[in-house]
Amino acid sequence: MASRPLVSVHNEKGEKTTANITLPAVFKAQIRPDIVSFVHFEMKKNGRQPYAVSEKAGHQTSAESWGTGRAVARIPRVRGGGTHRSGQGAFGNMCRGGRMFAPTKTWRRWHRRININQRRYAMCSAIAATGIPALVMSKGHQINEIAEVPLVVDDKIEECKKAKEAVLCLRKLKAYADVEKVKDSRRFRAGRGKMRGRRRVQKRGPLVIYNQDNGLVKAFRNIPGITTLPVDKLNLLKIAPGGHVGRFCIWTESAFKKLDGLYGTWKKRSSEKTGYNLPMSKMTSTDLNRLLKSDEIQNAIRAPNKSVTRRTQKKNPLKNHLLMEKLNPYSRVQKKAARLLQAERQKKKQALIDQKRGLGAKKYAFKADYYQLTPEEEYIATPVEGQGKGRPRKSTAKKAPAKGKKSAKGKK
C-alpha cells in the first residue's frame, strides 16, 4: 500500500503545482488479489447473453429403428427411398444431422449475485494497488518516466475537447509511452474469434478517472488503449482488467479528493455508501516472529510451564495377578480355594475311572526304560521291581545255510 502522506498535483504541461493533496485512506487499504480475482470472475459472467440450439434441431425427420436381425446398428434410420438420406442414422448425437447431447437451454443460470461488501472490498484493493509503482510496472505499463504514482492532474484536463490536445497532455505527463506500447501490441486474435467481429486484440493503456465530463471523454476515447471512468461509477472490470490488480491510473484533482467521501477513512464512515467504512486489517504488522520476540511482549508474559506427562501402562487385572491382588486382596484366597477344589475333583474323578476299569487302588508302574536288542536275542524287557527276574530267551529264527553246503533235505 502507498504510505506517503501527500501527493503532488501536476498541470496539463506536466509541471508540479504548489497544491498538494493528502493521500486518500483507500490507498492504504489491504490488497487482496484473491478477492479481486473472484469478484472479477463473477462480475464478468453478468455480461453474458443466453444462447441455445433450436428445440427441433435433429428431430425434424421421421425415423425409426430397423430392430435386430438386420446386421446394422439399432439407431433410428430415416424412412423412404430414392435418396441417399433414406436409411441414414438420425436423432442420435453420433449421427450426421442428429441433435447434440444435452441440448443447451436459454434458462441456464447465466448471471451471479455478488455480496455488496465483497464487491466494495475488491474495489478498495484494486484502487490501493494502483498506487504502488512495482505492481503497476509488473502489469506491463510503461511508467519509467512518470513523476509520481498515483498520477494526479489538474482539473483543466477535463476541459480537453480534441484528441490532439489529449495526446499533447499525455506527452507532457510522460504517459504517452504506455499508449505507444498499446499501438505496438495490436495483433490478430488467435482462434475462431477472428470470424466473429473481433479480429484484433491489444493491451490495455492508462485509465483516466475524472469527476466531471467537460469534453474529456470525447478527447480521450479515440486514443488506443485509453479508458475513461467517472469517479462515482468506478468499475472493477476496468480498474483490474483480467482480475489482475495494478492498472496505471491518471486521476483528476477533484476526482482524487472525492475518494475519502466515497470509501471513508476508518475514522469517518463513507458519506456516499450508507454505513460503509474501509476494511480493517487484522494485523498492523505481519511479522509475527518479530512481534513474539520483542522485548515488550517478552517482559509481559510469564515463563512457560514445563508440563511433565508420565505415561502409565494400563495393565489387565484379569491377566496380571499382582494388579488383581492390589484391586481385590481376597482374590489370592479365592484362587487358592479354586485350585484345591479342582484338585479334589480331579482325584475323585480318577478314582471313579479306576473303579470302573477294575483296577481299584492298585496301579502298575510298568515303565520300560529301554529295550535292548542283541543279534542272537529278541527284544528283552528290563525286569520291573516285584515282577521276578527277567531272563534272556534264545532266538527261534532260522539261520541261513553257509555257502558251499547243501541242506540235508536236498540230499537223496
TrEMBL record:
<dbReference type="Pfam" id="PF14374">
    <property type="entry name" value="Ribos_L4_asso_C"/>
</dbReference>
<keyword id="KW-0687">Ribonucleoprotein</keyword>
<protein>
    <recommendedName>
        <fullName>Large ribosomal subunit protein uL4 C-terminal domain-containing protein</fullName>
    </recommendedName>
</protein>
<dbReference type="InterPro" id="IPR025755">
    <property type="entry name" value="Ribos_uL4_C_dom"/>
</dbReference>
<dbReference type="Pfam" id="PF00573">
    <property type="entry name" value="Ribosomal_L4"/>
</dbReference>
<comment type="similarity">
    <text>Belongs to the universal ribosomal protein uL4 family.</text>
</comment>
<dbReference type="InterPro" id="IPR045240">
    <property type="entry name" value="Ribosomal_uL4_euk/arch"/>
</dbReference>
<feature type="compositionally biased region" description="Basic residues">
    <location>
        <begin position="390"/>
        <end position="412"/>
    </location>
</feature>
<dbReference type="GO" id="GO:0003735">
    <property type="term" value="F:structural constituent of ribosome"/>
</dbReference>
<dbReference type="GO" id="GO:1990904">
    <property type="term" value="C:ribonucleoprotein complex"/>
</dbReference>
<dbReference type="GO" id="GO:0005840">
    <property type="term" value="C:ribosome"/>
</dbReference>
<dbReference type="InterPro" id="IPR023574">
    <property type="entry name" value="Ribosomal_uL4_dom_sf"/>
</dbReference>
<feature type="region of interest" description="Disordered">
    <location>
        <begin position="381"/>
        <end position="412"/>
    </location>
</feature>
<dbReference type="InterPro" id="IPR002136">
    <property type="entry name" value="Ribosomal_uL4"/>
</dbReference>
<feature type="domain" description="Large ribosomal subunit protein uL4 C-terminal">
    <location>
        <begin position="275"/>
        <end position="348"/>
    </location>
</feature>
<keyword id="KW-0689">Ribosomal protein</keyword>
<dbReference type="GO" id="GO:0006412">
    <property type="term" value="P:translation"/>
</dbReference>
